[in-house]
Every structure is written in C-alpha cells, then in structure tokens.
C-alpha cells in the first residue's frame, strides 16, 4: 500500500517546508517537493491513496515517554488499560508511549517485565516501549538491569519518595547509577525528599488538614529542589546520565540548568499540568458534588505549584531555553468515583495522578499559538527529543526516508474543546482539562502506515501497536 500525504507543511525540530510525504507500507519512502516527478512517475495518480494536507502541518507522531497504564498504585489501578489508554493517545496524535514496568520491594524485576508484556501484548493501538521501575535495588536487580537493556529497556526509574512503596535509599540509588554508568542506561528520578514529606503529611493530618489542597502544601518546592540536587550529585559521582521526571518547581529546574551548564548529562522532563495548572486553582476548586474535595482531581506528585511563586512562567522559559528538554504527560488516571474518593477524609490516601495522554499535543500546541515556543520546538519537545532521549530516533521522532510512517496531520485552523463527552476517550469520569479550548486540531493520525484516526473517526484496533525495543539514549552530551 502506497500513500501520498500531499501539499502539507512538513515540520521537523529544525525547520519546515511544504512537501509531499510518500509512505510505502509501514515506512516513509520519500519526502519530495510538491508534485515532484523525481521518482519518474506522477505520484498523485500512481499511489493507492492520497491524503490532502494542504494548509496543514505534517508532523512526526507524538511520543509520550511517561505513562502508567493499569498501574497498581494507592490500593487501586490506574483506570486506563493499555487498550483504552493507547486508543485515547492515538486520538490525540500520540503514536508511541513508553510505559513503566512496576517492581515493588522483593518482586523480581524480570518477572515484572514479563508480566507487563503480558498486559500490553495484543492490547495496544499504538507502539509502546517500557522503562523499568526499581524500588529496592538488590544484587539481582543490578544483574537484571543488564538483561533488560538487552531487551530494549534502557531506562530505569528510581524514587526518592514513597517510603515502603517505591523509595530507594541513597546507597541503593548509588548502586543503580553505578550500573547505569557501566551499561549506558538512563537513570530516571522521581526527585522529592520522601522523609521530609512524610513528616509534613503527618503534621498536617494531626492538625486536621485533610483536604486535597494539603497534598501540595506538604510537598513543598524545597523537597523537590533538594532531592533534584542530591540526585544530580549522585549522578555526577557515578557518571550515570540522569533524567529528572515530572519537574514542577522552578528551583529544581535551576539545579538541572546548573548541572547542564557544567556539561553533566542531566535532563529535565515536565508535563502540561506544571505549565498550565496551579496550586491556587486547586485550592479554589469547589463543586456541588464534591465540595472542596473537587481538588482531588489535580492531586499528583510532584504537585501543582503556586502561580504566585512563578513556577509556571519559569517552566515555559526553561522549555524555550532547553533547560527542560521535553514534555510527557505522566498519564496516571484515576476516576473520582471509587478511586480518588479513597482519600475523602485524608488527602494522603488519594491515588496520585492526572490523565492527559490524549491532550498533550494539543495542549503544547497552545504554546505555539501564544508565541511561547516555535512550531519546530513543539515538534522537538513532543516527538523528536523523546525519541532521541530514549533510543528510538531514526525510526521514530522524524519524518524522513526509512522512518516508521508515524505521522500526524495537524490543522492550525481547527479547534478542539476538551472535556468529558467532547474530546475525551480516556477511561476517566472527569477531566483535569475540562473546559480547555484549544486552537488547533488533530485531523489525521497514522501509525506505521495505518490510518488510526481520520474524519473524526477511529479506525485503529487493539494489537496494531508493537513493542519497541529501544537502544541507548541518543541525546547524551
Ligand atoms: O502522581 C503521579 N505522578 N503518579 C504517577 C506515579 C509517578 O510518580 O510518576
Ligand atoms: Zn514519579
Ligand atoms: Zn509517573
Ligand atoms: Zn480539523
């Protein structure tokens, strides 16, 4: 099957040009001047299908490098399965996710990895890779890290918070970093000081402060900045590359920038919630149904930050200057009913997470509309850099001959209203983005040559998505 995506503006991380994109089977065969006869034939009449993209942007499919489908967490499971979550992702122009295999203390990382393959196989509408979470780092975990790298799991997430659940102590972190320095893997860090947070949480609850807003107040920016700094020092000591996940505090960004200025392989990821939403809005949230518990919709870790303190503005600036390299969602959806509700009387029992996998491309495109980032930077932070950061570039993250035909046709003149019952296919009974009006529209989504979304309809299927065996990072300094 040959397809010509004709007349669109093809955008890469480095430029844009009006071009025709020839897709042959699952890959991109050529990017040609419009109406080109360079291949010796009139393509428009010789291909099986022509997609008219004139007046629209043709961009590489989005890559969401941080999702948690069906994640067991907080006494429940993230509400999107691999099927519902990847279908929602496709609707929003994301054609690859990298999800997290979970290893709780005393579980065998390799057994967990096999289990996650069982969960995802045959279910995904788009391609998927895995990072591995390590909690307790045992001798066997270090051995498993080598085996997982050979499997294409080239990044390992560690936690400096969640004592007794995920937390690794500094010695365990050091050992995992030594291994990563040796085998080339990326260390991903949940950088929050867990001991400090645990004390603040206990004190808040003892004082009767149980509402969702106190989740944010008990995870102050100092706990994030301190842990970020500590992780950077440990990475420096070992030589391991470090990727700090879901950065929300401007002071954490500053730590990352200092390390990068010194030439250290330290990278920062942020998420749409840390660019658009704030602690003040969470405090103000109130509904007839939920009262002040409405704020539970925005309970995630790291937490939303104060707008008055300037974190969101600083984060946009860091995205422009590349102090922060990319935007993932940290998609970890929980419904209000029966899930977030677990913390009705105690914010510490609210399962942590926000669902955004469907909206990342649209939400970040608003940065282009408002002039905060360029069109090219939009492609870079949502697709090209995730591909490079996590060893998929060449196959993903670029529209070039030989790459997988993962392509989005994006209409800058279109419009998208976000919310339950509007554009929302995630398995959630609410949206953290309810009411957001987006300039721009995902018109067509292609994954390895197959059209998944067009004309407002979904044509994909569970099982189309394949496992992506990733290489080592292609982004190191
Ligand atoms: O609140 C969050 N971020 N939930 C998902 C787990 C994690 O720490 O990434
Ligand atoms: Zn985390
Ligand atoms: Zn996460
Ligand atoms: Zn449209």
UniProtKB/TrEMBL annotation:
The modification N6-carboxylysine is found at residue 157. It comes from the Bacteria. Keywords: Hydrolase, Metal-binding. GO terms for molecular function: hydrolase activity, acting on carbon-nitrogen (but not peptide) bonds, in cyclic amides; metal ion binding. Pfam families: Amidohydro_1. Gene3D superfamilies: Metal-dependent hydrolases (3.20.20.140), Urease, subunit C, domain 1 (2.30.40.10). Its cofactor is Zn(2+). The keyword Repeat does not apply. The keyword rRNA processing does not apply. Residues 57-451 form the Amidohydrolase-related domain. InterPro entries: Amidohydro-rel, Hydantoinase/dihydroPyrase, Metal-dep_hydrolase_composite, Metal_Hydrolase, Metallo-dep_Hydrolases_sf. PANTHER family: COLLAPSIN RESPONSE MEDIATOR PROTEIN, HYDRANTOINASE/DIHYDROPYRIMIDINASE FAMILY MEMBER. Belongs to the metallo-dependent hydrolases superfamily. Hydantoinase/dihydropyrimidinase family. Carbamylation allows a single lysine to coordinate two divalent metal cations. This is Dihydropyrimidinase. It comes from Xylanimonas ulmi. One of its GO terms (cellular component) is cytosol.
């Amino acid at each position: 099957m040959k397809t010509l995506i004709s007349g669109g503006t093809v955008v890469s991380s480095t430029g844009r040009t009006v071009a025709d994109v020839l897709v042959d089977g699952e890959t991109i065969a050529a990017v040609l001047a419009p109406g080109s006869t360079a291949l010796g034939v009139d393509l428009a009449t010789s291909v099986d299908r022509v997609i008219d993209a004139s007046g629209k942007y043709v961009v590489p499919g989005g890559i969401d490098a941080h999702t948690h489908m069906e994640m067991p967490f907080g006494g429940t499971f993230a509400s999107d399965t691999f099927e519902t979550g990847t279908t929602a992702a496709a609707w929003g122009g994301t054609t690859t996710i990298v999800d997290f295999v979970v290893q709780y203390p005393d579980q065998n990382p390799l057994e967990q990895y096999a289990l996650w393959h069982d969960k995802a196989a045959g279910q995904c509408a788009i391609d998927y890779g895995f990072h591995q979470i390590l909690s307790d780092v045992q001798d066997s975990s270090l051995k498993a890290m080598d085996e997982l790298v050979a499997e294409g799991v080239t990044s390992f997430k560690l936690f400096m918070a969640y004592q007794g659940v995920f937390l690794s102590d500094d010695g365990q972190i050091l050992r995992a970093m030594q291994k990563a320095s040796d085998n080339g893997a990326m260390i991903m860090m949940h950088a929050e000081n867990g001991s400090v947070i645990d004390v603040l949480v206990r004190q808040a609850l003892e004082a009767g402060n149980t509402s969702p807003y106190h989740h944010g107040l008990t995870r102050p920016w100092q706990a994030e900045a301190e842990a970020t700094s500590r992780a950077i020092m440990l990475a420096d000591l070992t030589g391991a590359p470090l990727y700090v996940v879901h950065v929300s505090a401007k002071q954490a960004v500053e730590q990352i920038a200092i390390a990068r200025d010194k030439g250290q392989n330290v990278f920062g990821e942020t998420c749409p919630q840390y660019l658009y939403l704030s602690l003040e809005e969470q405090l103000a949230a109130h509904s007839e149904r939920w009262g002040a518990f409405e704020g539970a919709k925005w309970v995630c870790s790291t937490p939303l930050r104060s707008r008055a303190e300037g974190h969101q503005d600083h984060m946009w600036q860091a995205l422009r200057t590349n102090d922060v390299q990319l935007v993932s969602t940290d998609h970890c959806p929980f419904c209000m009913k029966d899930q977030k509700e677990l913390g009705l009387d105690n914010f510490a029992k609210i399962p942590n997470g926000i669902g955004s996998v469907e909206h990342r491309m649209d939400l970040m495109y608003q940065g282009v509309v408002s002039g905060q980032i360029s069109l090219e930077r939009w492609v870079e932070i949502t697709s090209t850099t995730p591909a490079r950061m996590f060893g998929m570039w060449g196959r993903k993250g670029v529209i070039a001959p030989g790459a997988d035909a993962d392509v989005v046709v994006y209409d800058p003149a279109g419009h998208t209203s976000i919310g339950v019952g509007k554009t929302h296919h995630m398995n959630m009974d609410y949206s953290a983005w309810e009411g957001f009006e987006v300039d721009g529209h995902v018109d067509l989504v292609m994954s390895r040559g197959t059209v998944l979304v067009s004309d407002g309809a979904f044509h994909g299927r569970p099982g189309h998505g394949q496992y992506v065996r990733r290489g080592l990072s292609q982004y190191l300094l």
